[in-house]
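Sequence design from tokenized structure. All designs in this work follow the same two-part layout: the structure record, then the generated sequence. An example of the structure record is given first.
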């Protein structure tokens, strides 16, 4: 009897302890993992729909690429941007309408250009400093009273508790657990999606998978005889003819120069595990008081930039960057020509790598780009007109936390991609297939940066993987492309690493669209909570009605 009483007492204490633990754990309506632009939009929408939400960001800075250097907004067509996404750009304009926010130049001195030009009388502004975007997001977080936690990384091995296809909670490496009714993966890597056991892919599918023409290996895009949308600007990102790939020119026995694939590009149209190149979108300045000159890295190896130098010696004359003007004498500086800021072929392991390995990959990209900028600015073999211009610039003192002026956020152009209820393909982007369950519009061209560097049949170095294919008008994105298959997870939405082929993702993967999809994902999550149903069972008409009420753009009216 005494043993029985002790057993019952112990059992009661266990139940009591478990109940106490549960009562001390906050359960949210919505848990958003990933404080990117899309994650922030999702959290805002959930709060506006009266739901409790927590926004979890693995790094020390929210906003992803929007606060990480990508101030030259990739749009395609501004009319496709609605809802919270457009509200963000309107708040950017309000920020710059204040003269106090012009420190390094007068407001009247600044002129933007290209697709991001802000027209006279336009309510939104499409170019901005990283710090301006961060300030706008901070104001959103404060005004909407959003609970935000930084520096919390998901335990990718054992951090997702899922019962009967439903996520119950997620756990961080630091031990915190977050319980929710619904979850959104708003990371660039598809972190929560993968840990929850949802189907996904990495790399390029073969063209045969979805009967596409621009998805797999395509060395023909380096051929100047090509015409039409597939060849548009392809040569802008390749080597001039005649660049020798070997350490000792003309001597294969000396070995290939760094970052050249020794196995060749692969079969035309074939798929592979490779992802398009990453880079840092540099925020540079030419203002003497705010400029940090480009320094030569301690581990600098000239051989890493031999292809760059040979490209100019073979006849290249252009500047290897797109140096787009941002306010306050700053830039958003992006890749251009055959050898530039893209660290081609050095990111294949990133999507599946552990956190420490990702940091090493990120630092390798940073060191590569630091060495690149020093070479362009100061190397004696570099063309004088290049050195003269590049050396005027440097990183900005007042933008990022690092003393060298470099940001933490690497441009993750593509990582994992979900294989969900519906896969967006080239034909959606071209308007040949049109979905009816629209949650937002894509508008940018099908854009892939180079994926590998190889030796061509004539013995010279070439890049492969660049596609810049025209999209004639905005096209609808399917609700089914942001939800997993029914049998895999019933309360998860994936707003960034959505279900799309490599080339279709190349069009969708733009920050304004990620904000649109984040808002739509949160709307669906909130409605699914109200209806007490799986996200796969949500009535689209109910979703559509709410999206329209919240000013999402779901149709294309032919305006701009």
């Amino acid at each position: 009897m005494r043993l029985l009483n002790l057993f019952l007492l112990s059992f009661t204490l266990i139940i009591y302890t478990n109940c106490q633990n549960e009562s001390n754990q906050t359960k949210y309506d919505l848990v958003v993992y990933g404080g990117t632009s899309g994650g922030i939009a999702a959290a805002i929408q959930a709060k506006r729909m009266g739901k409790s939400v927590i926004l979890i960001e693995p790094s020390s800075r929210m906003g992803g690429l929007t606060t990480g250097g990508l101030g030259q907004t990739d749009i395609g067509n501004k009319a496709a941007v609605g809802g919270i996404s457009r509200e963000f750009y309107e708040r950017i304009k309000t920020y710059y309408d204040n003269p106090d926010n012009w420190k390094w130049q007068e407001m009247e001195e600044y002129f933007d250009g290209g697709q991001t030009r802000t027209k006279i009388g336009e309510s939104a502004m499409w170019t901005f400093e990283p710090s301006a975007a961060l300030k706008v997001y901070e104001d959103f977080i404060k005004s909407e009273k959003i609970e935000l936690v930084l520096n919390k990384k998901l335990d990718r091995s054992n951090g997702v508790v899922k019962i009967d296809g439903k996520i119950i909670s997620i756990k961080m490496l630091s031990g915190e657990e977050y319980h929710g009714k619904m979850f959104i993966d708003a990371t660039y890597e598809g972190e929560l999606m993968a840990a929850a056991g949802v189907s996904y892919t990495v790399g390029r599918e073969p063209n045969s998978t979805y009967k596409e023409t621009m998805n797999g290996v395509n060395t023909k895009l380096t051929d100047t005889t090509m015409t039409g949308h597939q060849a548009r600007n392809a040569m802008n990102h390749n080597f001039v003819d005649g660049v020798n790939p070997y350490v000792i020119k003309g001597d294969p026995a000396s070995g290939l120069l760094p970052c050249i694939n020794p196995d060749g590009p692969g079969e035309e149209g074939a798929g592979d595990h490779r992802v398009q190149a990453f880079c840092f979108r540099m925020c540079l300045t030419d203002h003497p008081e705010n400029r940090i000159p480009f320094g030569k890295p301690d581990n600098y190896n000239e051989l890493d930039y031999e292809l760059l130098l040979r490209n100019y010696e073979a006849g290249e004359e252009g500047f290897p960057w797109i140096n787009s003007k941002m306010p306050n004498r700053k830039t958003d500086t992006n890749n251009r020509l055959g050898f530039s800021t893209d660290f081609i072929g050095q990111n294949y392991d990133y999507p599946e790598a552990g956190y420490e390995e990702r940091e090493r990959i990120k630092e390798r990209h940073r060191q590569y780009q630091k060495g690149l900028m020093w070479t362009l600015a100061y190397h004696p073999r570099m063309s004088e007109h290049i050195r003269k211009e590049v050396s005027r610039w440097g990183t900005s003192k007042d933008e990022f936390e690092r003393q060298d002026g470099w940001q933490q956020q690497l441009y993750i152009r593509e990582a994992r991609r979900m294989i969900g209820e519906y896969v967006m393909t080239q034909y959606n982007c071209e308007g040949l297939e049109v979905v009816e369950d629209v949650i937002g519009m894509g508008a940018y061209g099908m854009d892939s940066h180079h994926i590998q560097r190889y030796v061509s049949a004539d013995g010279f170095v070439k890049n492969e993987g660049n596609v810049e294919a025209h999209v004639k008008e905005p096209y609808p994105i399917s609700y089914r492309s942001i939800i997993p298959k029914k049998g895999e997870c019933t309360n998860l939405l994936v707003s960034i690493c959505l279900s799309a082929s490599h080339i279709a993702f190349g069009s969708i993967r733009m920050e304004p669209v990620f904000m649109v999809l984040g808002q739509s994902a949160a709307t669906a999550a909130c409605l699914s909570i109200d209806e007490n149903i799986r996200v796969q069972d949500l009535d689209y008409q109910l979703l559509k009605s709410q999206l329209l009420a919240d000013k999402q753009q779901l149709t294309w009216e032919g305006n701009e």
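The chain has 13 helices and 22 strands. We note this feature because it recurs in several other targets discussed in the main text.
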